[in-house]
Structures are given as structure tokens and as C-alpha cells.
Amino acid sequence: MTKIWMQRLVFVTALLFILGGVGCQTLQPDAVRQQVKGKSVAVTSLLGPRLNLQLIGTTIFHNQYGTLTVPEWGLDEFAISVVRSSMKNSGSYADVSVFYGASRNNSDGSLILPEGTQADFIVAIDSWSHRDPIFNTNAEVKGLGVFHRTFFGALNKTFVFAGLQVSLHDSSGKLIGQHPEVAYQEAPFTMRSGGDINWDWNGRNPAPIIEQADMASLKEIVRLLLRKTVEKGLDDSGLR
Q: Which helix H or strand E contains 40, and what residues bound it?
């Protein structure tokens, strides 16, 4: 990794968060270690292939939002591999398998499991929404993506972010508890405006742009932050 990427990694660990508008259980590490020891676990990811792009300007009329879809990066597969290897190396489980195709019931946080999923416990990696902790704006930041802040031309910084949650479920998919982690790293590139402001009553603005030449740097930082947040989430949850 080049020196320009060796920026300060900022972790923000949430003490409480809300899913679907209702309070939810946080995982107690000591209790979790006792509960899962010697059991079988199946691992999945609900991250998907999308990165969220947000450019926050001087006023709301300068804000721009967009998405970048990168299925070729295999974000779910990468997250699952990090979880599986971390849990297998802990030596605490009878078996650690993987599966795909789950979805979340946002009313209670449970997982809808594909037919044939069998394990004593399910561990899932999913996106988590949080308020901007870097610049303290009112912007809501979710999942994986890129965040740029500009203010009267005096501030012009781009950060890559990862906001994830590790959740533990029983064999039926019922939520036992969850733990969020957030990590930011300043990017060695600048995400630029998508063009002239074109605000209308529907709130449409041009989406911000990441240059093709910066995609390799972005991919490496996203994978770094994804690994860091997943591993820290497993440790803080008592799952590793």
C-alpha cells in the first residue's frame, strides 16, 4: 500500500442504534461467547454491489447524491470470506458455513432464510445508517461509499466510508442482537461535482463523479475498511 493510502483510520463505534424505527438488542460479548461456543454457524452478507456517493455542499441546494454499482468487486463474497476465516481461526465453532440469498425483515430485524439453511446460529453483515461523524453535518451516511464535503471553497475533502452492522440470529433467522461499526479514511483522490446545479421541485441534482482512473484506489480502500469494520465488529460482539 502506498504512503498516500496510509491515512489515519477513524473508527466510530455506536453505543445505540435504531433499525426500522424500533430499538434493538445490542450484543453482549461475554454472553455471546458462551452462547455460540462449540456450535455451528452459517455466514451471509446483505451488502449488495452498490456504493453510495454523497457530496455535501455549502447549502442543501449544492448537495449531490448518486450510486456506483460494482458487482465485479464481489463485496458480499469478500465480506463473507473475512467473517468465515476469522471465525474458523478462532477455533470456537463446530462448523462455519456460508450461504447466499437471505433478506431482512425490517419490522423486527429477522432474516428470511433460503430453503435448506441449517446451522445453530446465523451471522449476517449488513449496511448501517449513521449521521456524518467527520464534519458533523446532518447528512445520513449508509453502508459503503464515498463522502465529499465542500464549504465556500475553503473545505474540499473526500473520504471513503464503511458503515456496517454484524447481527446474530438463531437457526430460524430471529434476531438475537447486533453491533454497528463505522470507519472512514481520507481518499487519495477527489470526488467531483456532477455538473451545474439543476435543483427543481423534485429535488433532482446531478450525481457526483469518481474518475475511472481512481477506481483502483477506491476498491482497495473499500476492501480495507470492509475488513477492518467486520473484524472489529466480530471482536466487539464476542464472535471471534
A: strand 40-45
In this structure, what DSSP letter does residue 62 have?
G
Alpha carbon 101 to its chain's center: 18
CA atoms within 13 A on the CB side of 204: 2
The span from the CA of 27 to the CA of 43, in Å, is 17
Q: What is the CATH number of the domain that holds 118?
A: 3.30.160.150
CB 158 within 8 A of CB 189: yes
Residues linked to residue 160 through DSSP beta bridges, in sequence order: 146, 185
The DSSP 8-state label assigned to residue 98 in this structure reads E
**Owning domain of residue 80:** 3-237
- Count: domains in the chain: 1
- Tell me the average pLDDT of the chain: 86
Span between the terminal Cα atoms of the chain, in Å: 27
Alpha carbons within 13 A on the beta-carbon side of 83: 34
Per the CB < 8 A criterion, the answer to whether 7 and 185 are in contact is yes
User: What's the CA gap between 153 and 229, in Å, rounded?
Assistant: 32
Tens of pLDDT along 52-109?
A: 999 988 877 788 899 999 999 999 999 999 999 999 999 999 999 999 999 999 899 9
Grid cell listed for 82? 473475512
